[in-house]
Recover the amino acids of this structure.
């Protein structure tokens, strides 16, 4: 049986990469909802419908856990999936808590990058309210970045100026941590580390999510039994997007095709 990872597009591959590194004795399925990518600009009701439709297809496979490797989809649909299915459903949330813990003593602020829909949800507001006692968390929507990522646009000459324009209104000397609150964004982590002041740490929620997956599988006696096999699916059954998934997976793993 496999661990399934789900996202609207190629973003969730960043989470599956962390799982493949940390859980080598598991098999993996990645499902991209290519019919509806990107989720960020859509309504909560639309995204919930899309996620439930995708879950039906995914769970028709031999799956022992479903990871919603998308902060937006988690924020609007995780509760519905857990209510509907017996299989463990593990979601994502922006790594605001560890970022606040890193910066509390320093007095520096935290900047969270995410989609507009993620930032607008009560789940995100409740998270910030729960962990941000010092009021040091700021948020910045970056909807274009998902589209750049889906187009496999990673050229620093193009993306560097884009990031600098987005950060222009922030005094970056006041910030200690940048949180990548969308699973597409870690594709740009290395570039961000190059253009941001060296004191700013760039983090995301992948490692914490994978630790949660490992813990749930151990608790249910479902851990192991695989060999690291990876399989890709997409909701449009589109061979061209299948090739894109394989290309993006290779890029994440440092393989040149």
């Amino acid at each position: 049986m496999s661990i399934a990872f789900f996202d609207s597009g190629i973003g969730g591959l960043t989470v599956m990469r962390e799982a493949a590194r940390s859980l080598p004795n598991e098999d993996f399925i990645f499902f991209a909802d290519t019919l509806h990518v990107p989720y960020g600009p859509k309504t909560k009701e639309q995204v919930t419908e899309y996620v439930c439709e995708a879950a039906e297809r995914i769970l028709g496979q031999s799956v022992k856990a479903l990871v919603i490797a998308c902060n937006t989809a988690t924020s609007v649909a995780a509760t519905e999936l857990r209510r509907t299915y017996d299989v463990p459903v593990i979601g994502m949330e922006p790594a605001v808590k560890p970022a606040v813990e890193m910066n509390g003593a320093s007095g520096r602020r935290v900047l969270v990058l995410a989609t507009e829909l993620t930032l607008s949800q009560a789940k995100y507001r409740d998270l910030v309210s729960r962990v941000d006692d010092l009021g040091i968390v700021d948020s910045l929507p970056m909807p274009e970045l998902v589209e750049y990522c889906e187009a496999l646009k990673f050229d620093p000459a193009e993306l560097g100026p884009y990031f600098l324009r987005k950060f222009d209104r922030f005094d970056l000397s006041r910030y200690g941590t940048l949180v990548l609150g969308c699973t597409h964004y870690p594709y740009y982590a290395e570039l961000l580390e190059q253009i941001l002041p060296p004191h700013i740490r760039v983090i995301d929620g992948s490692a914490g999510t994978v630790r949660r997956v490992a813990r749930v599988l151990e608790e249910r006696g479902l851990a192991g039994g695989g060999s690291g096999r990876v399989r890709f699916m997409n909701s449009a059954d589109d061979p061209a997007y299948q090739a894109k998934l394989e290309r993006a997976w290779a890029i994440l793993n440092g393989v040149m095709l």
Q: What stands out?
A: The chain has a mean pLDDT of 92. The two ends are 29 Å apart (CA to CA). Residues 44-58 form the longest helix (15 residues).
